[in-house]
């Protein structure tokens, strides 16, 4: 992406991007404002025209002149806005932040007007009541039902006063979540640094982390910093924090890093406490205006889980199984620490460290050693071979065929090898490396465009194929000749991200509102991702994705067995942590009254912790202040979705385990999963798609069996 001025102008309107690929390198930050405002003007004109047509009582309503027309109206602005939002995460600059802040009210206003169009909603209801309804496909019927419900959740039924208030709430929430909260976390993360000159303070820290810390020092102007001699500059980057907590023998440094990380964005000038309170109050008010008692009930209206009670039952059932097992796991850690001379009770900043020490003792595996087996290129090759074997697709590198936002970004195409002509069915970008000064921490997947028959461009492209971005934050190689080593957690994340995008490529949905991520119930969206992550623990897959950077050998069978065993190590503690976060989420969005002074956020956090934490949180823990999933993401009253999806994916993976060793049956099962779950999510209800694959309803037992937790 370029920042300098020139005579180029960002294209807008229908068909502006060839094959759905944004011209990332040609984008100028200053062009987004004029381009998006032009798209807004076009959308208003199209919307006015459609509403005028629908006001004609003699108009013959058809799927084409209602639903297809809406898809045409929504797409151009949505594409541009999504790209701007995405770029703010990977090439964050003041001008992009300012542009997004300046435009968001205008964008949300026109999108709200479309979502609240009474004329369009009446037309959709007329289609549902028409004689054509029985002749619509399953996808069309589902799409229409969800579109009408979405309009109701947008406030189409409200009077003018309440509708205006809902719109004000949505705009304020967007600002609070995606700007205030997210920027506070980002700025608080950047604000912390600690320069260390004595290497003994970093005893135990892996070389790969020391290299990052030395690079941080160089970036801050200490040009002489090296991996071996330092100095080393600490940051609150997720990978750095985790590495310090797991490996550093310096307990006081672990305590400091833990404290700074769990309390970040909880004090001025980046204080998210009042931001969270306002977000929760606005969500509660929005829910009540729309006819729901709580925001949790509103959130579940478009999810797979049938009720708050059903979600709480899953959370509590898993808690009851995991809590005593987690207590036993903590007791083992205490015994291990005591045997090594640790003579005080374990604190939260000790758990990751002693977990790593006990894991090394019992399984002789550690992050740094494993990373030597996972060069990025080898992992990618093995992942794509697995996708070919399971789903009959080929992933082709196409670097140079599309513009990218950074020289490190790669580009790939996905071909359906069992379809005549082996057509391209999806395309994706991979942004692999961390860039601390301009790229958001963590990893994620974002949609660029979704699959659509309506938005295809015949005859060359009768169906627009999905395009998505995979963002990682791997440690960049020190030299161009050095392979990029991945931690095993990085490997799991890459598998997860690829599967997330793969669903959008392999869907059989013909309409974007069914093929896009929002077309799938949020608590079912992770079923494919969790399934593919399970294959990281499949022996044959491990032989494909591992290759030692020195010897060239794959991971030995002995090390693989230890890795699988290590997955189950402290499994109850890990599952309990997820249930803890899910319980906090539901408590805040279903029981907490933001308007009452009787209970504070901290009291809610502490109350839930008493039931779910075998080791008390530290007194200054304010993890809610950086809990982006709830307050800057899409998981509000939905954090349980991870384990809800994991329950279904564990059941699906059990089917592959049952045919292990039978290559023909294994591949046939992969095609069956492709043609049911991957193809039908968004087209059918997730339970229907799952039952088509498994032949029965899902069982929760496989999740606990997968992690070795006894019931």
Explain the overall architecture.
The protein has 711 residues and is of the alpha+beta class. Among the domains are: 18-157, Up-down Bundle (Glutathione S-transferase Yfyf (Class Pi), Chain A, domain 2), CATH 1.20.1050.40; 192-262, no CATH class. It is built from 27 helices and 7 strands. The chain has helices at 32-54, 63-90, 94-115, 118-128, 138-154, 160-191, 207-219, 238-247, 251-262, 273-289, 295-300, 308-339, 348-363, 367-371, 376-391, 488-506, 512-515, 527-534, 539-545, 557-568, 571-591, 601-612, 628-631, 641-658, 663-680, 686-694, 701-707; strands spanning 194-196, 232-234, 393-397, 410-416, 424-433, 444-449, 466-474. It has a 5-stranded mixed β-sheet, sandwiched between helices. A two-stranded antiparallel sheet has the order 1-2. The protein starts with 31 loop residues before the first helix and ends with a helix.
Layout of helices and strands, plus pairs?
Blueprint: H1 32-54, H2 63-90, H3 94-115, H4 118-128, H5 138-154, H6 160-191, E1 194-196, H7 207-219, E2 232-234, H8 238-247, H9 251-262, H10 273-289, H11 295-300, H12 308-339, H13 348-363, H14 367-371, H15 376-391, E3 393-397, E4 410-416, E5 424-433, E6 444-449, E7 466-474, H16 488-506, H17 512-515, H18 527-534, H19 539-545, H20 557-568, H21 571-591, H22 601-612, H23 628-631, H24 641-658, H25 663-680, H26 686-694, H27 701-707
Distance between the termini: 53 Å
Instruction: Please summarize the sheet with the most strands.
Output: 5 strands, mixed
The total strand number stands at 7
User: What is the CATH C-level name of the domain at 18-157?
Assistant: Mainly Alpha
Keywords: Hydrolase, Metal-binding, Metalloprotease, Protease, Zinc
Cofactor: Zn(2+)
GO molecular function, one term: metalloendopeptidase activity
Domain Oligopeptidase A N-terminal: 39-160
């Amino acid at each position: 992406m370029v920042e300098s001025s020139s005579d180029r102008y960002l294209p807008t309107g229908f068909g502006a991007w060839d094959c759905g690929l944004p011209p990332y390198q040609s984008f100028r930050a200053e062009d987004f404002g004029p381009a998006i405002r032009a798209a807004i003007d076009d959308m208003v004109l199209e919307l006015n025209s459609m509403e005028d047509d629908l006001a004609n009582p003699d108009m013959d309503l058809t799927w084409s002149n209602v639903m297809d027309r809406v898809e045409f109206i929504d797409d151009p602005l949505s594409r541009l806005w999504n790209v701007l939002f995405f770029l703010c995460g990977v090439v964050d600059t003041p001008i992009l932040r300012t542009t997004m802040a300046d435009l968001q009210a205008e964008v949300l206003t026109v999108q709200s007007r479309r979502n609240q169009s009474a004329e369009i909603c009446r037309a959709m209801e007329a289609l549902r009541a028409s004689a054509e309804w029985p002749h619509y496909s399953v996808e069309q019927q589902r799409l229409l039902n969800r579109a009408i419900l979405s309009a109701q959740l947008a406030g189409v039924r409200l009077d003018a006063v309440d509708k205006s208030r809902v719109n004000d709430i949505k705009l304020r929430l967007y600002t609070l979540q995606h700007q205030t909260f997210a920027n506070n976390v980002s700025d608080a993360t950047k604000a912390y640094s600690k320069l260390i000159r004595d290497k003994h303070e970093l005893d135990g820290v892996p070389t790969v982390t020391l290299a990052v810390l030395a690079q941080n020092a160089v970036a801050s102007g200490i040009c002489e910093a090296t991996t071996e001699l330092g100095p080393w500059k600490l940051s609150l980057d997720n990978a750095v924090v985790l590495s310090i907590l797991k490996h550093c023998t310096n307990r006081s440094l672990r305590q400091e890093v833990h404290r700074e990380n769990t309390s970040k964005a909880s004090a001025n000038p980046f204080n998210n406490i009042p931001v969270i309170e306002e977000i929760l109050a606005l969500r509660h008010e929005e829910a009540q205006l729309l006819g729901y008692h709580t925001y949790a009930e509103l959130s579940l209206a478009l999810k797979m889980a049938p009720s708050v009670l059903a979600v709480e039952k899953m959370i509590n059932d898993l808690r009851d199984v995991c809590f005593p097992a987690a207590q036993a796991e903590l007791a083992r850690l205490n015994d291990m620490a005591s045997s090594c001379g640790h003579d005080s009770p374990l604190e939260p900043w000790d758990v990751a460290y002693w977990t790593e020490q006990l894991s090394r003792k019992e399984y002789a595996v550690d992050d740094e050693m494993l990373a030597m087996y996972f060069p990025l290129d080898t992992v990618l090759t093995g992942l794509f071979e697995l996708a070919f074997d399971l789903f009959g697709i080929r992933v082709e590198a196409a670097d140079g065929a599309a513009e990218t936002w950074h020289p490190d970004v790669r580009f790939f195409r996905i071909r359906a090898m069992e379809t005549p002509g082996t057509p391209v069915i999806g395309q994706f970008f991979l942004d692999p490396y961390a860039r601390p000064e301009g790229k958001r921490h963590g990893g994620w997947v974002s949609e660029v465009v979704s699959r659509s028959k309506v938005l295809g461009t015949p005859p060359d492209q009768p169906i627009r194929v999905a395009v998505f971005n995979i963002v990682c934050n791997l440690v960049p190689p020190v030299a161009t000749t050095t392979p990029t080593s991945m931690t095993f957690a990085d490997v799991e994340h890459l598998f997860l991200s690829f599967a997330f995008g793969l669903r959008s490529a392999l869907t059989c949905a013909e309409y974007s509102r069914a093929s896009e991520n929002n077309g799938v119930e949020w608590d079912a969206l992770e079923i494919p991702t969790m399934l593919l992550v399970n294959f990281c623990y499949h022996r044959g897959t491990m032989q494909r994705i591992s290759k030692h950077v020195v010897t060239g050998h794959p991971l030995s069978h002995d090390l693989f067995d230890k890795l699988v065993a290590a997955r189950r190590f402290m499994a109850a503690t890990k599952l309990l942590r997820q249930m803890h976060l899910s319980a906090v989420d539901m408590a805040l969005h279903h029981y907490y009254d933001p308007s009452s002074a009787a209970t504070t956020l901290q009291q809610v956090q502490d109350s839930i912790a008493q039931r779910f934490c075998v080791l008390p949180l530290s007194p200054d823990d304010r993890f809610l202040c950086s809990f982006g999933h709830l307050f800057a993401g899409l998981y509000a009253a939905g954090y349980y979705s991870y384990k809800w999806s994991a329950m279904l994916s564990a059941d699906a993976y059990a089917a592959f385990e049952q045919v292990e060793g039978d290559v023909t049956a294994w591949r046939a099962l992969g095609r069956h999963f492709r043609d049911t779950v991957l193809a039908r999510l968004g087209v059918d209800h997730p339970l229907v798609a799952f039952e088509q694959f498994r032949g029965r309803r899902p069982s929760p037992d496989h999740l606990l069996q997968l992690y070795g937790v006894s019931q």
